[in-house]
Amino acid sequence: MDMNQYLEVFIEESKEHLQTCNEQLLELEKNPLDLKIVNEIFRSAHTLKGMSATMGYEDLANLTHKMENVLDAIRNEKISVTSEVFDVLFEAVDHLEEMVMSIAEGGDGKRDVAKVVNQLLLIEKGESPVNVAASSEVSAAVAVLANESGLKSIYDEFELTVLEQSKEQGFESYEISVSLREDCLLKAARVFMVFEVLEKVGEVIKSNPPAEQLEEEQFDSAFHVTIVTRESADDIQKKILKVSEVETVEVHTISLNEIRSSLNNDSEQQAPEVSNIVHPAVPETKKLAEPEAAKKTSTSKQSSSKTIRVNIERLDILMNLFEELVIDRGRLEQISRELNNQELHETVERMSRISGDLQTIILNMRMVPVETVFNRFPKMVRQLARDLNKKINLEIIGAETELDRTVIDEIGDPLVHLLRNAIDHGVETPEVRKASGKDEEGTVVLKAYHSGNHVFIEIEEDGAGISRERVLKKAISKGIISEQAAASLPDRQVYELIFASGFSTAEKISDVSGRGVGLDVVKSTIESLGGTVSVDSKEGTGSIFSIQLPLTLSIISVMLVEIQKEKFAIPLSSIIETAIVKREEILNAHNQKVIDFRGKVVPLLFLKDIFKVPVYQDDDEYYSVVIVRKGDKMAGLVVDSFIGQQEIVLKGLGNYLNSVFAISGATILGDGQVALIVDCNALIK
Amino acid sequence: MSIHTSVADLKVIVFQLKGKEYAIPVSQVRSIEKLQHITRVPGTVPFVKGVINLRGVVTPIIDLRSRFELEEAEHSDTTRTIIVALEDMEVGLIVDSANDVIDIPADNIEPQPDVVGTVEAEYINGVAKLEKRLLILINLEKVLNPDQLKESTGAEG
Predict the structure, then answer these.
(1) Contact state of B60 with A656 under an 8 Å Cβ cutoff
(2) What is the DSSP string of A541-602?
(3) At B16, which CATH number?
């Protein structure tokens, strides 16, 4: 069988399952007694095992199988979860990730995992210290769960009425529990066959999980169906057992009175029913009760939102096509203005609105929650904290904040760097923290939120903070700043120095951060994304790094301006406002022309001179000024006239011209000409 | 294609600059365009004339006369932009005219004569003699060398 067509799906889903494993393992580490979590992990591992075996990745399947055994032992309280067990489990997941990555990159997914497998085997045999207290509590938890095993489905009023009426007409109601064999590949098909059998003998009232989920194989290996029929329980069971790959079938007669009474009695939500187990089931049954309980909670968690997987390439193509459309829209708008035809005007207006909506949708489609980047951090932080012998509590806030995929792809490495930095240089060792009266455990907060057209990501830590003296000393020794300038520099600007190239505060190069790439790389990466990064700190109480990123990179709003005969675009995101200034209002400070703008002295930059625009006509009596900002610094860009606001598609200048001063890119205007986009960040120093 | 064409033959686009004939292998040429509006890009070396909109792609334009330090000429009806591609770069070259595609037999290509002392010498791969024509083969890697671009801009800024 040719598996290639499934490979992509397999890789995607494997990654998801591994992510779940990682997340849940971390969760379990916090609540080691929560068996629900173990079940979650078990299910993910189990699915992964099935998938990889089907795809023929034996090593992957083998390791997952060993891991699954350990998990099974944990949930059956044969072994207790100690930190050694966690380490091995994490290591196993790491190996699995490596294998999946190798498969994704076209490899064979083979890997030497003998060590981990051995460790897993040892754990499985219970050859690690057993915590008696823990296991007794675990057994209590299991007992609670087991209580729910009596009745698998909960009925609403309508279903009960149906059951009652059919009873009156001489039909018998049964609840049938079917479990499929673990290695069953086409679960949905088996479900379908079971339903076909059932529909022949009677009427299906309800299934748990619901039919849609069964069709999508969103169940473990067992499901429950309630039917009304005239046939005997015995016959039904035999008929269902004829379907291949069905492991066990249990048929319970439903006693309506008891359901009623349990419904009425709210305090005992689900009284265990005295079920008539027609055929004492195979010993498996007891085990099945437990995943069942976990499944109920998890299915309720799964929201019913319908999604489809779309190849990112297709989205990119869609985006490119739409960009072309935006350019043509601009052209149409221009033509319509020139022709001044009312009907054309209205149509173009309408089209602009629709394409505006379309733009929002397409941009939203490319939005990905930052979670996809954040979710690898907890494990990384855990590992780092262990390596450095520090105690770290990582708090993630706003992981659901969405960002354009292109930004997401780029933001990972800078964030890793900042986090490593925060943990390595920021948070102190427990001893130091204790000595300075802090909690031994350091807190690192990773926070993302929307604000206006930007997304902010902040990394805050309650560590030692940045030492002004040390930063200055270093900066001076590296020749980044002169001693005189250093003395008068405000704190914030001193901290900004750590982003300067050639600066690295770590006195000794540790394995964690400071591997030669400094924060200057972080800064340049973020700036290349059109974002900014800043730092603030208080010595002794911690530092905060905040990153500001644009929501999207490809379509931006700009103000088009004219300088002599050339058109330039200034991104709206950096514009504060525009002003018309009389020639007399311009003041001279040293060699710099400035204006008084709302009580602030704002330096004027004549774009005509900066860009050496060929001059055809002389200056006006009035200057058109665009006030732009970079952080809290402002500048007034002097242009000849404002053309107006426009949505434009950001394009590069081509690989040949990759670094032009104060030009961040280009765009194609409605008339087909190219206009350059002014990089305000480069203009303001 | 004639039967005599051997594998070593080189298919080239021939163009003119100040009366001399130059050639670029067709494999490096994407298209030949008429001159269109060029948007000046400030702060670049003089031979970079700016960028054009080439069917939705912003493409940088080099004036080849200026690149070879020949005096620049007024653009005329015959002026063409040859869009060349080198690795991941696409650049347009302004030439006086371009109108020929020729197969050059490998035997006819000779290394450049060392007598030439002008700037263009370093961008030449060799010369090809064809009957009475002399074609100068351009070395695009050298012409589009980005290092040169940076040095010049660095000196300027």
Answers:
(1) yes
(2) TEEEEEEEEES-SSEEEEEEEEETTEEEEEEGGGEEEEEEEEGGG-EEETTEEEEEETTEEE
(3) 2.40.50.180
| Nearest alpha carbon to residue B141 among B157, B125, B121 | B125
Contact by Cβ (8 Å): A326, A355: yes
What is the architecture, at CATH level 2, of domain A369-550?
A: 2-Layer Sandwich (3.30)
Chain B residue with the nearest C-alpha to that of A661? B43
Tell me if chain B has a CB within 8 Å of the CB of A615: no
Identify the active-site residue in A17, A46, A224, A417: A46
A68 in catalytic set: yes
Q: To the nearest whole angstrom, how far is the Cα of A662 from the nearest Cα of chain B?
A: 9
Lowest mean pLDDT among A328-332, A363-367, B98-102: A363-367
In the numeric block, which tokens belong to residue B129?
């003699």
- Long-range pairs for A136-142: beta carbons < 8 A, 24 or more residues apart: A137/A33, A138/A33, A138/A35, A138/A77, A138/A80, A139/A77, A141/A33, A141/A34, A141/A35, A142/A35, A142/A77, A142/A290
B32 found inside a domain: yes
Tally of domains within chain B = 1
- Residues of A with CB below 8 A from B43's CB? 611-612, 660-663
Q: Closest by alpha carbon to B135, among B26, B11, B20?
A: B20
Q: Is B24 a domain residue?
A: yes
Tell me if the domain spanning A149-297 has CATH number 3.30.70.1110: yes
CATH entry, A4-146, from 1.20.120.160, 1.10.540.10, 3.40.50.1820, 1.20.1250.20: 1.20.120.160
Give the residue from chain A lying closest to B91, CA to CA: A656
Query: Cβ neighbours of residue A375 under 8 Å, at least 6 residues apart?
Result: A19, A22, A23, A399
Residues 543 through 572 of chain A touching chain B, CB cutoff 8 Å: 566
Q: How far apart are CA A461 and CA A465, in angstroms?
A: 8
DSSP 8-class letter at A669: -
Measured CA to CA in angstroms, residue B39 lies from A323, A382, A668, B97, B149 at distances of: 20, 53, 10, 21, 18
Looking at A39, A208, A421, A681, which residue is catalytic? A421
Domain range holding B103?
Answer: 10-144
Mean pLDDT of A224-253: 80
pLDDT band at residue A228, thresholds of 50, 70 and 90? Answer: confident
Residue B150 lies in a domain: no
- The verdict on a CB contact (< 8 Å) between B60 and A666 is no
Question: ipTM value of the model?
Answer: 0.83
Determine contact: A650 vs chain B, CB below 8 A. no
| A307-366 residues touching B, CB cutoff 8 A | 323-324, 327
Fold assignment, A555-683: OB fold (Dihydrolipoamide Acetyltransferase, E2P) (2.40.50)
Q: Is B51 close to A654, i.e. CB distance below 8 A?
A: yes
**How far off is chain A from B19, nearest CA to CA, in Å?**
28
Does the residue B5 lie in any domain? no
Contacts of A619 (CB under 8 A, 6+ apart): A583
Is B117's pLDDT higher than 60?
Answer: no
Tell me whether residues A655 and B59 touch, CB distance under 8 A.
Answer: no
**Contact flag A656-B44 (C-beta cutoff 8 Å):** no
pLDDT, tens digit, 9 for 90 and up, residues B46-72: 899 999 988 778 899 999 998 888 888
Burial class, A187, CB count within 10 angstroms (exposed 0-12 / middle 13-18 / buried 19+): buried
What is the average per-residue pLDDT within A169-192? Answer: 78
Taking CB atoms and an 8 Å cut-off, how many pairs form between chains A and B? 82
Please give the residue of chain B at the shortest CA–CA distance from A653: B58
Residue A46 a catalytic site member: yes
What's the burial of A263, exposed, middle or buried (CB within 10 Å: 0-12/13-18/19+)?
middle
Active site residue A527: no
Categorize the per-residue pLDDT at A113 as very low, low, confident or very high, splitting at 50, 70 and 90.
confident
